[in-house]
Amino acid sequence: MVDANCTLQLKRLKENLADARDKFLGYPVSKDFDYSALNQFFQYPINNLGDPYEDSTYRVQTHEMEREVVDFFAELFRANPKDYWGYVTNGGSESNLYGLYIAREMYPKAMVYYSESTHYSVRKNIHLLNIPSIVIRSQENGEIDYDDFENTLQFNRDKAAIVLTTFGTTMTEAKDDVSRLKSILKKLAIQDHYIHCDAALSGSYGAFMEPRQAFDFKDGADSISISGHKFVGSPIPCGVIITKRSLKDRISKGISYIGSSDTTITGSRNGHSPLFLWYAIQKLGKEGFRKRYQKSLEVATYCKAALIELGIPAWSNPGSITVVFPKVEEHIKQKWQLATEDEQTHIICMPNVTKDQIDAFIQDLQLAELTAVTPCLSTF
Amino acid sequence: MVDANCTLQLKRLKENLADARDKFLGYPVSKDFDYSALNQFFQYPINNLGDPYEDSTYRVQTHEMEREVVDFFAELFRANPKDYWGYVTNGGSESNLYGLYIAREMYPKAMVYYSESTHYSVRKNIHLLNIPSIVIRSQENGEIDYDDFENTLQFNRDKAAIVLTTFGTTMTEAKDDVSRLKSILKKLAIQDHYIHCDAALSGSYGAFMEPRQAFDFKDGADSISISGHKFVGSPIPCGVIITKRSLKDRISKGISYIGSSDTTITGSRNGHSPLFLWYAIQKLGKEGFRKRYQKSLEVATYCKAALIELGIPAWSNPGSITVVFPKVEEHIKQKWQLATEDEQTHIICMPNVTKDQIDAFIQDLQLAELTAVTPCLSTF
Prior knowledge:
The structure is a homodimer.
Chain A: H1 4-22, H2 63-76, E1 85-89, H3 92-106, E2 111-115, H4 120-129, E3 133-136, H5 146-154, E4 161-166, H6 178-187, E5 193-198, H7 203-206, E6 223-227, E7 239-243, H8 245-254, H9 272-309, E8 322-326, H10 330-335, E9 340-341, E10 344-348, H11 355-379
Parallel strand pairs in A: 2-3, 2-4, 4-5, 5-6
Antiparallel strand pairs in A: 1-7, 6-7, 8-10, 9-10
Helix pairs in contact in A: 2-9, 3-4, 5-6, 9-11
């Protein structure tokens, strides 16, 4: 029996969630989804056990739709149509863990390189996988420092190199140039190398940036991970990992002694998230994704201009929907749930962020400026 | 725009799921849940970012309910009320990974021991974490061979020991005796040791077994993992890991250089699964869990008796809701989705399995026996 207390608690939770959801600008989470057509599927214990490309006797699954999601992103990332593989994960962390896992299986004695602007979870993953690593300096905009990368690599030419690049850093949405990193590896003749691109934030719209920025398979990546709950939007955190089937098969062999062809991290896997992503893809299509990005970019441009007009030195990286500016007063930070780091803060213009919200935020900033002046006057 | 084709595909999926759901006896998945009261929460991008006991600026979360879920299981597992910690994971695999991760952080040079009946995902986890391991023989009932364990340990007394015990193996629901393993460690004076109990299957009802079987914190476990989508039931695979706060704090320090107090594996975490588990706990309470187990046990006893009456040598481990018997004909295996291994198969009497279903299954067996005889006759 569910008692009145339980019902009350659920009611309160709903109010809190609704309130918190409607007031954030600082998190890369789309909130404009409507998956109510999928509610009917929550009565089934869906479990996408193991590899989505392998049959299982457990048939309460959505493997077919999961494969369609993988197809869609593989195409966006210009994967070789005859050589890709992937699955829907529980989020960017698991996707990155998988990419690094393949890399380690291929080169067990390798060194991992990543910039200091890389998401903290990557360091957790590297620690989990027990691989040595070197952190490379970032440039001021958050992009990896290519000179520091080259100099560091210079002293480690005896080791295979695993390079973890970021396509959209957390704070400034900076993008590491995969082609440029690849050419440095080539220049130093480090043949044993693997590039994993953490495209959690910008991967879903990277294909639509003009001019193009180097991050995908054609640019030199061996695996790419994205988040599903960020730009696309999903009630449940999820992600996608896309890699080359040939690489994945190589690790399957390596771990075949464990007696399973299941190379996924979790085994029992959420079958609803693939359904959400599949539905979003059905609804939007490639063109819908493009428009969604263009709208976000427009709001970001609007936001940046409004801040600059207010005398605030706002800026953004090329093609980025994140506007960066100096940190704001505590009460504004709290109200709009703005993440702050090293004296900087940002607004991420996810597809649900509107110009009206930007206006309301700007008004709060103006008001704060006034009240910062008013007490001064009133003390005279 | 969602077109007719999409709607049709969803309709077909629903039919397939309903059909597959209603015809399985061989998977440890409860199907009798009704979480429709929670559908309203799928409109929110809930994310239980990081440690459920730490504050985050992202407020669209269910951390409070998650902590109540942890409280409930910590009590069932007789954890020290002043020294436990845990979180809701994406399933048994992640829970086991976490337990092994803590163990490795405490004893980086340790050897892992586990029986050959251990779930295959554990081997994947050990490989992922890069820890050496030794597989211990199992007894015929699926329980670890204590003599083999002792003999093996004898030759490895120079190393710290991480013991992964199983409380409910996949095939025969065998249970490794944690107290007995602990006393062997003591006898050999291996002071640096860690016991992680994989209680994915039987953990949720282990506290109600009569007589008690040794598996929990008082018996000597340092961490325990369970599955949420098995006995409790959940549309999405999920799990819980419970450990000692003192151990978790120790690893937090160890990995603090990564600049985050978040020690969870995934970071961005599903906030709906804690809500499902919380709701089930509210609905059932401890007594409801007990009754649920007793009902399952009764159906298992009924099933075993019916099979034996049919001349089939069915058996089960003490307190177990899994009935084991020789493998059946292919068409019956397929129809009831029965997992088969080493000439054995099983029926797992999850709470949704009814005596009527057992009767129908028995009837299928009888029919198969008859038809196995009939063609013989007709050829004469």
